[in-house]
Amino acid sequence: MDADALTKAQASPLVFYPNAMGAIGRKPDHGNQLETIPSFDGEVYPKHRSNSNFEENNVEKFLLAAVAALFLVIQFNVGSVNAVELDESIRTVPLNDKGDKMTLSLKQVKQGQKVFVDSCSYCHKGGATKTNPNVNLGLTALSGAYPARDNVEGIVDYLKNPTTYDGEKDIYEFHPNTTRSDLYPKMRNLTDEDLEAVAGHILIQPEIRGILWGGGKVYN
Q1: Taking the alpha carbons of 82, 84, 89, 94 in that order, is the dihedral positive or negative?
Q2: What percent of the chain has pLDDT over 90?
Q3: Top-confidence residue, 41 or 123
Q4: How far is C-alpha 2 from the geometric centre of its chain's CA atoms?
Q5: What does the alpha-carbon distance between residue 194 and residue 74 come to, in Å, rounded to a whole number?
Q6: pLDDT digits (tens, 9 = 90+) for 19-35
Q7: Alpha-carbon distance 113 to 100, whole Å?
């Protein structure tokens, strides 16, 4: 080796690494950064790391940042949808079969949802009817009953005095109701306000959930 080559070799940074037997080798590190690795003898030595590792780390960080930003956007949009769902026009539902209407307060909306989850969802999850899939809680099915149940007073009346779909027979012993709360403990403490709230909850769901409401296992 001539003098110039020796001088360059001595000036070049050295990277020490263990070989398979735990011995120490060395090679020039041309401006790359170092990280440490253990050897078989228990000592820790610097390890050569190429610039490509830094590029990979930067790409990974960029992807994580992009995912986080996307998550925030989705959360914002979901919050916006919820606000729209509670708009006054959606909270306005038929009061009776005479054409009168009522607007549910935000408190009634929350109250109705709680009553439905606690007392109705076992048989009517997602607006379907577990015991009779042909009759769901969608507006078409409710309006086809006799008397019509597509209004607050109609649903409240049903929860007090349930009848068959054609209205010809009482079914107190087969459907939860407040009149026979001795048979249905979950109905025992429900007030008229609770019944109105849960009726309102049922009536606004088609507007909020669309075909998902009453769609059965296909959608829920």
Answers
A1: negative
A2: 57
A3: 123
A4: 72
A5: 33
A6: 444 444 444 444 545 55
A7: 23
Residues 144, 165: Cα–Cα separation, whole Å: 8
Which pair of tokens denotes residue 116?
Answer: 């439905």
* Structure-block tokens of residue 49: 């790391």
At 14, which helix (H) or strand (E)? strand 14-18
Two structure tokens written together for 92:
């306005």
Distance CA 113, CA 134 (A): 23
CA distance 213 to 173: 27
CA distance 26 to 13: 10
Q: Which helix (H) or strand (E) holds 92?
A: strand 92-94
Find out whether 152 and 95 touch, Cβ atoms under 8 Å: yes
User: From CA 107, how far away is CA 118, in angstroms rounded?
Assistant: 17
